[in-house]
Design a protein that fits this description.
Elements: H1 2-16, E1 31-38, E2 41-49, E3 54-73, E4 76-93, E5 102-118, E6 124-129, E7 134-142, E8 148-159, E9 164-167, H2 176-180, E10 188-199
Antiparallel strand pairs: 1-2, 1-10, 2-3, 3-4, 4-5, 5-6, 5-7, 6-9, 7-8, 8-10
């Protein structure tokens, strides 16, 4: 996968880059700890700033079993509940010197997303994302490598193979194909995250 190869090359270049040795002003924070909130749950994240422009972040997150939404698929209305658990490594780079508030973000995440769909008659389907790892890419604003309070917003997408759909025992319908073909459960999952933390 080209995105996977590109992310690996960027990570290797960043770690080996002589920019790590650059002098920094007194307000520069080598590390950042933050908490985030996204559709995939809350997260705890630790970041190391190699330079004013490039950072590496690792995170752990998840969502307990939660009622998410009600939607219609192929004429059938479903209540959707879901949970998730994940860990990820992400490279952030501020490529534009004149806009250091803007970050390009690429990385990998491993874990799982487990959704359950139930219709009015009690028929259920399990929709599971278990491919590992998957690629994430997106854009972010904020989280400058500065000491003290920092905050930011990210928007992007996870790229994988899509979900596996299973009908639970006792299911009297055959809508698994319609559920699998729904735009809600495709190979690309949009994501956004708000975060707040502390640079030190």
């Amino acid at each position: 996968m080209r995105i996977f190869a590109l992310a690996t090359a960027l990570l290797a270049f960043t770690v080996a880059s002589p920019a790590q040795a650059d002098d920094h002003d007194s307000d520069f924070a080598e590390n950042t700890f933050n908490i985030g909130l996204s559709p995939f749950g809350g997260s705890l994240n630790f970041g190391h700033n190699f330079s004013e422009r490039t950072s590496l972040q690792v995170g752990l997150g998840g969502l307990p079993e939660t009622a998410l939404l009600t939607t219609e698929i192929d004429g059938v209305e479903y209540d959707i509940t879901g949970r998730s658990s994940w860990a990820g490594v992400f490279l952030n780079h501020r490529a534009l010197e004149s806009a250091d508030w803007l970050r390009f973000n690429i990385g990998f995440a491993s874990g799982g997303i487990w959704n359950t769909l139930e219709d009015a008659d009690g028929n259920t389907y399990r929709v599971e994302y278990r491919e590992n790892p998957v690629v994430y890419t997106g854009l972010g604003v904020g989280f400058r490598p500065k000491k003290g309070l920092v905050y930011g917003f990210d928007i992007g997408a996870l790229f994988g193979a899509g979900a596996d759909v299973y009908a639970d025992a006792g299911n009297t319908t055959d809508a698994a194909e319609a559920v699998a073909d729904s735009s809600l459960f495709g190979p690309v999952l949009p994501n956004f995250q708000f975060g707040i933390g502390w640079g030190f």
